[in-house]
Design goal:
With 638 residues, the chain is an alpha/beta fold. 39% of the residues lie in helices and 15% in strands. Helix 3 crosses helix 12 (256-268) and helix 21 (512-524) crosses helix 25. The two termini are 46 Å apart.
């Protein structure tokens, strides 16, 4: 029996010898490469924290001691050591989450998968333990990438203020978040990482003392924990200790014994301690180590032996944006790009290669990115800030008060908007069209296909006196959806063949094919409909209320939460125009959705052609004073 299958909980690690621990680490890497290659997931980060996770669970008593993971990309090893070894359904509906999950295990304290927040959690938990008189430890595992976020330093400022409050901060320093970490902090950590004078001196002392009977290793342990005075002669790690936080490291993050020794010292200390661990993202898997882009930060289904994708995918939304922003960059020297530590995931890789001086990676700092964009716009440039839709939430105040209030021409490009699928609640981009509705002057586009994405991106960067937003879905772009005419600024995707059609279907973004399917199903029931794509969903097109008045029912379909979304905005526009037409809005229910494929999630939300058509048929029938049960049932159930 393998060592891994004999681990049902963290305390099973206690009986293993140092040699067995190394064997276990090797088994875990083999398991991860095999399992994640079949399902896709965050492979590189987990390969880098195998020894660190083993050491954490040997030194600390989870769940009494709280081990908190910033972001959670690196939680797979933690799952394996806490009784979750069935990875066959990883990131699929009803399978293991790709992040820590309270529903899965008592060892998962927080479910956060937005970066830079774990130190705030740790500060609060440590305060709670102190007030309640508990001696349980709090351990926060964060990364050098997450430390580029302002929230991390706000938390450090508070943590450092309590010299007698135990809290262990483990910095998993692999020089990367998604891509290589940038900025002043990264340079400081690089100095610590590459200043080897201290480590050479320590290694010579270790060799000498290990030959000294009885007292050798204890003395070495003391020297390894030497305080700032000695280390500052050789390595400038004073930044952390100047904050009032004790510093231990740098430690080889793949040496279990060294890690345990450092963590034990940190555990015994009665105040905040930083343990600085140097790890290799993708360790033990050559294809990951050779991947310059992100060392297999996240992969789809791949061949485990080569790391190559099992199947080639067609053009996706991100690549369409990436190609068009390069074209715009060639045409307009004022177009610059901003990313928050996700240059390639948001499609700016080619732009950076062609225009390296016109790309600004702000680190995991969306708030700063938005304000910096306002400054760039004020300085005469047109910034395009590409970010996942779910992460724009973090910069709302800056978008409102710095960009919009100052009428700055900034374009925000929101990747992975709407239902995203396997990453679950924290990554579904279902909030943007609601939170942005209240921003004065902002214009928001939801392209339905690749051609519209290209066109609307160009329209967005022409606006120089207000923020613009272009949002699109995750994954492969569908076939082009042609228009058959226009009304105002709206595209008509299907025209009714009667002067008084029954239903006006307002299609938002990538759900255009669903709306066309609904129209076809309604037509089979003798219900006529018009399908329009507003293209720009904020502000509501002035022609829409008049068009709505020509129909008996208005139906809106959006890949966004229903509360405050496009449907709500259109309903308000109809009321303001005194158009008294019933409106039914279809969207994502206002709750945290789980993980699964995009089609599964859309079906669960009732955003399929048959589900919508069935409800619209019932609505039209009720307006006629009758309910054709047979007709409604023809579409099945949700």
């Amino acid at each position: 029996m393998s060592l891994l299958t004999g681990i049902s909980g963290p305390r099973d690690l206690d009986r293993l010898t140092p040699v067995q621990l190394e064997e276990l680490a090797s088994e875990i890497r083999t398991f991860l490469i095999d399992a994640v290659s079949k399902t896709g997931g965050h492979l590189g980060p987990n390969l880098g924290v195998v020894e660190l996770t083993i050491a954490l669970h040997r030194v600390f008593e989870s769940p009494a001691d709280s081990i908190l993971w910033d972001t959670g990309h690196q939680s797979y090893v933690h799952k394996l050591l806490t009784g979750r070894q069935d990875f066959s359904g990883l990131r699929t509906k009803d399978g293991l989450s790709g992040y820590p999950s309270r529903e899965e295990s008592e060892h998962d304290i927080i479910e956060n998968s937005h970066a830079s927040t774990v130190l705030g959690w740790a500060d609060g938990l440590a305060k709670a333990n102190q007030l309640r008189g508990l001696d349980n430890r709090v351990v926060a595992v964060t990364g050098d990438g997450a430390l580029t976020g302002g929230m991390a330093w706000e938390a450090l400022n508070n943590i450092a203020g309590a010299k007698d409050r135990p809290l262990v901060i483990v910095v998993n320093d692999n020089e990367r978040s998604y891509a290589p970490t940038i900025g002043g902090l990264a340079n400081h950590l690089a100095t610590l990482r590459t200043t080897d004078g201290y480590e050479r001196w320590l290694e010579r002392g270790k060799q000498m003392l290990n030959r000294t009977p009885v007292v050798g290793r204890p003395i070495y342990g003391t020297l390894h924990g030497a305080k700032k005075g000695l280390k500052d002669v050789i390595a400038p790690q004073g930044m952390f200790e100047d904050l009032g936080i004790k510093y231990v490291g740098p430690i080889d993050g793949h040496d279990i014994q060294a890690l345990e020794s450092a963590l034990q010292r940190a555990k015994r200390f009665g105040g905040p301690v930083i343990v600085h661990c140097l790890t290799e993202k993708g360790r033990g898997y050559q294809p990951a180590r050779e991947d310059e882009a992100d060392q297999f930060h996240a992969v789809g289904v791949i061949h485990s032996d080569t790391g190559q994708p099992v199947s080639a995918s067609g053009a996706d939304w991100t690549s369409v944006f990436g190609e068009e922003i390069v074209r715009l960059g060639r045409e307009r020297e004022d177009v610059v790009a901003i990313t928050a530590a996700m240059l390639r995931p948001v499609g700016l890789g080619r732009f950076a290669e062609e225009f390296p001086d016109r790309v600004f990676d702000v680190g995991i700092a969306e708030q700063h990115g938005a304000v910096s964009a306002a400054g760039l716009a004020t300085g005469g440039l047109h910034p395009v800030f590409a970010v996942y839709a779910t992460f724009l939430n973090r910069a709302f105040d800056q978008l409102l008060m710095d960009v919009a209030l100052h009428r700055c021409g900034v374009t925000f490009v929101l990747d992975r908007a709407g239902v995203t699928g396997p990453d679950g609640a924290s990554h579904h981009g279902m909030w943007d069209m609601s939170v942005l509705q209240c921003v004065p002057g902002l214009r928001l586009a939801a392209p339905r296909d690749a051609d519209q994405l290209r066109a609307q991106l160009r329209e967005a960067v022409e606006v120089d006196d207000a923020p613009t937003v272009v949002r699109y879905s995750r994954g492969k772009v569908g076939a082009p959806v042609a228009s058959v005419g226009t009304v105002g600024g709206m595209d008509v995707l299907r025209a009714a063949d009667t002067d008084r059609p029954d239903v006006l279907l307002v299609s938002v973004g990538a759900l255009a094919p669903v709306c066309l399917e609904v129209a076809e199903l309604l037509n089979k029931q003798g219900i006529s409909s018009t399908v329009v794509d507003p293209r720009w969903v904020k502000p509501v097109d002035p022609a829409l209320p008049g068009l709505a008045a020509e129909h008996r029912v208005v139906v809106t379909v959006e890949d966004n939460g229903r509360a405050g979304g496009v449907g709500s905005a259109i309903a308000q526009a109809l009321r303001d125009a005194d158009v008294d037409v019933p409106l039914r809005d279809f969207g994502i229910p206002q709750r945290f959705l789980g993980h699964g494929s995009r089609p599964e999630m859309l079906a669960e939300a009732g955003l399929t052609g048959p589900a919508i058509a069935r409800q619209v048929t019932g609505l039209v029938a009720r307006l006629e004073g009758r309910l054709d049960a047979a007709g409604a049932a023809a579409f099945g159930t949700d």
